Amino acid sequence: MREPKAFFFDIFGTIVDWREGVAREARAVLHPLGHDMVWTAFADAWRGQYQAGMEEIRSGRQPFSKLDVVHARNLERILGDFGLSDISDETKRQLVLAWHRLDAWPDVARGLSILRKHGLLAPVSNGNFSLMAALARRNNFHWDAILGAEYARDYKPKAGVYLSACEAFDLTPGECMMVAAHSDDLKAAAECGLMTGFVARPNEKGPGKGESEPRIPVDAAGDDLFELATKLFR
Amino acid sequence: MREPKAFFFDIFGTIVDWREGVAREARAVLHPLGHDMVWTAFADAWRGQYQAGMEEIRSGRQPFSKLDVVHARNLERILGDFGLSDISDETKRQLVLAWHRLDAWPDVARGLSILRKHGLLAPVSNGNFSLMAALARRNNFHWDAILGAEYARDYKPKAGVYLSACEAFDLTPGECMMVAAHSDDLKAAAECGLMTGFVARPNEKGPGKGESEPRIPVDAAGDDLFELATKLFR
Predict the structure, then answer these.
(1) How does the average pLDDT of chain B come out, rounded?
(2) Are strands A176-180 and B6-9 parallel, antiparallel or unpaired?
(3) Which of A132, A145, A150 sits opposite B129 (nearest CB)?
(4) Is residue A82 a contact partner of residue A49, using CB atoms and an 8 Å limit?
């Protein structure tokens, strides 16, 4: 394997823990208003609308909207199930911003610190620029650029998202590695010619409900991002 | 004046010294091949093609190309004047990369360090992502995102470049400040509703040939970026 010149990162699940973060932030917004629920179930239900919401755009049925807008649309679909049909527009806006306030998994800082010595680093996420910038400030990520869906005006796993990221850095796909905790993301990247780095996040969707092993052949794999980085550059 | 939530930066001339840098890097490429010339005159001639090269794209006569491509086209126009008609494609490629190897003015690190405590920071330059990322690595800039021409697929001073930057950060134009050493850049930003911060770079184009004072009303002005930052947040 050649040494990658750039590392592209999936963010939700791979770099940050969306489930516990959305649950915590939703509670912070809704509990003072008198709502109570299993907050992780709310996070799971919201995330459960994720692919369907983006598929409207990937298929061309709707024009591109940034992920905050998709999150807001998806939120509308689950409000009734959680007794939230009457919340205000401002409360909905605060809930959408829950996705801007997620925390990195504990190994991420050390992993990125190693990878940064070896190549360019950029999120290639479905998250929009403002969301990526907010997560970076919160977690002190130092990206070389934000790339991904909003830059490409389409959503992963469409090829244009991966290829536009390579082109932005003047690199061929074979010079770049996509890093993700999701086999479908890595499969799409590999089909575009990128190298693939799998990070296990076995508890991403709840205890034991994430991927602990890749379901496809990958160029490198680690039990977390720090292990992946040390395997690549030991 | 409200406190800006984001600061957008012109890069060539405002943040980095393109003239001395291009002269130095062109010499490093061409002198070993036996060429000699007044290297700052070469830099000035190349930069002299800058607006005409972008105007082809702003006018719609040519589709968007990243600035590296515009720089390469502009280089072709001046090679003959400097006895360089016979240089190889690889030498031309190395010359284009001179623009990736420019140094910040000495006040920039301190200025950005102050501004970063008060808002999001992004280049809103005509330079492409790979060029902006290379300058950031070289000079240790910590941007929240790279925005500007390549993101907007058009060149300043077209309104879409400024407005797309505000939208990327979910901000209104009135919440953002454009920082530049060029009155025409600030004039266009102000017409879009952005606040304006002028930085004097009196020697940008050679001794005394830069702007030492803005030619239009601005919201803030400094003799350098550090002074601008301290005036805003004293």
Answers:
(1) 97
(2) unpaired
(3) A145
(4) no
Domains and their CATH numbers in chain B: 6-17+103-232 (3.40.50.1000), 19-100 (1.10.150.240)
- For chain A, the first-to-last Cα distance in angstroms comes to 14
What SS3 string covers chain B? CCCCCEEEECCECCCECHHHHHHHHHHHHHHHHCCCCCHHHHHHHHHHCHHHHHHHHHCCCCCCCCHHHHHHHHHHHHHHHHCCCCCCHHHHHHHHHHHHCCCECCCHHHHHHHHHCCCEEEEEECCCHHHHHHHHHHHCCCCCCCEEHHHHCCCCCCHHHHHHHHHHCCCCHHHEEEEECCHHHHHHHHHCCCEEEEECCCCCCCCCCCCCCCCCCCCEEECCHHHHHHHHCC
Q: How close A189 comes to chain B (CA, Å)?
A: 20
Q: Which of A101, A103, A105 is nearest to A226 (CA)?
A: A105
Residues of A in contact with B170 (CB under 8 A): 68, 130
Q: Is the pTM of this model over 0.95?
A: yes
Question: β-pairing, B195-199 with B176-180?
Answer: parallel
Structure confidence by residue, pLDDT tens digits, B194-219 = 999 999 999 999 999 999 999 999 99
